[in-house]
Amino acid sequence: MCLFGLVLTACGGSGSGLAPAAEPAHSPPLETNPAGRVVEVGNKPEGLVFDPRTGLLAVGLANPDELALVDGRSGRVVRRVALPESPRHLDLARPGGPVLVPAERAGLLVEVRLPRGRMRAIRVGDHPHDATAGGGREFVGNERGHTLSVIEGGRQARVLDAPVGPGGVAATKGGLVAVVGVRSRTLELFDGRALRSIDEIDVGLGATHVIARGSRFFVVDTRGDALLEVLTSPLRVHRRTHLAGSPYGIAFDGRRRRFWVTLTALNRVAELTDRRLLRTFPTVRQPNSVAVDPATGRVFVASRKDGTLQILDPPPYRG
Predict the structure, then answer these.
(1) Nearest to 66 by CA among 49, 40, 38, 87
(2) pLDDT tens column, 208-220
(3) Lower CB density within 10 Å: C or N end of the chain?
């Protein structure tokens, strides 16, 4: 772990040659049984989000393209909602829903209401990859269009220029929106209320996902094997926590102040504070996505390879 007073200069920014987008590592066959229990959920699960109000876990599936709504206590699928296209990432607009489902090849943001699964589809940009909500608006990163769609009142109200290959998107309660450019290897910060860009910095060697915590953002550097803490005033990379194993999916447990990050090259999931790695647990194969129930601390990991869902109740950390 090291602290940075300056932005990362070894990374390619928007003015340098573009790198291919970082992708999750191809996981090897399992050598250790997954911790907890494993249930069947559907084909190629990727994208998880847990709703604390209904107790439902939303799981994105492909072929057939649908959203599985899973009871977080039993692990049983209680409803399947047909989608116009398979998602990659999911988020909640607010506790209780709706679930925000970017349908990449359809060019749509699908809002799925909980618990019954009623849908509303909104036309956005080219290849919407991730979505978030903040300040009464929803924001969608259109990966191939290099734009950020702003959704108000059930329609696309504005389109903003975004870093090249916008992938991960996250918003703070204070109205800041961060967008990871997976090809420009940058993070751009937007004022989500004034709908203007504030600043952009180089971030990591191949960042993919980002989540917000307070006024800070945490970025998964998949190619650089790290979790980066980004401060916003001024915008800068403040801390880098090393995470061997090609980190990819991320979730945050606000009650316990824990991050959970999947390590796809190792078939493991890591538990961290904002400063250090605490421990790892064996997972299902190809663990691209993770979610957590903040009430119980239960962790869910999806296997893109095997169509299964791992349910893990980690014991208290005693280190």
Answers:
(1) 87
(2) 999 999 999 999 9
(3) C
Q: Which residues make beta-bridge pairs with 253?
A: 258
pLDDT above 80 (res 84): yes
Q: Is residue 267 within 8 Å of 27, Cβ to Cβ?
A: yes
Q: Would you tell me how many other CB atoms lie within 10 Å of the CB of residue 20? A: 10
Amino acid at 112: V
Q: How far apart are CA 71 and CA 51, in angstroms?
A: 10
- CA 26 to chain CA centroid, Å, is 18
Residue 305, token pair as written in the block: 């390879």
pTM: 0.93
For the purposes of burial, counting CB atoms within 10 Å of the CB of 40, is it exposed (0-12), middle (13-18) or buried (19 or more)? exposed
Token pair for 148? 């950020």
Structure tokens at 110: 């699908």
What CATH homologous superfamily does 2-12+37-312 map to? YVTN repeat-like/Quinoprotein amine dehydrogenase (2.130.10.10)
End-to-end CA distance of the chain: 18
Residue 12's pLDDT is: 35
Q: Where are the domains of the chain?
A: 2-12+37-312
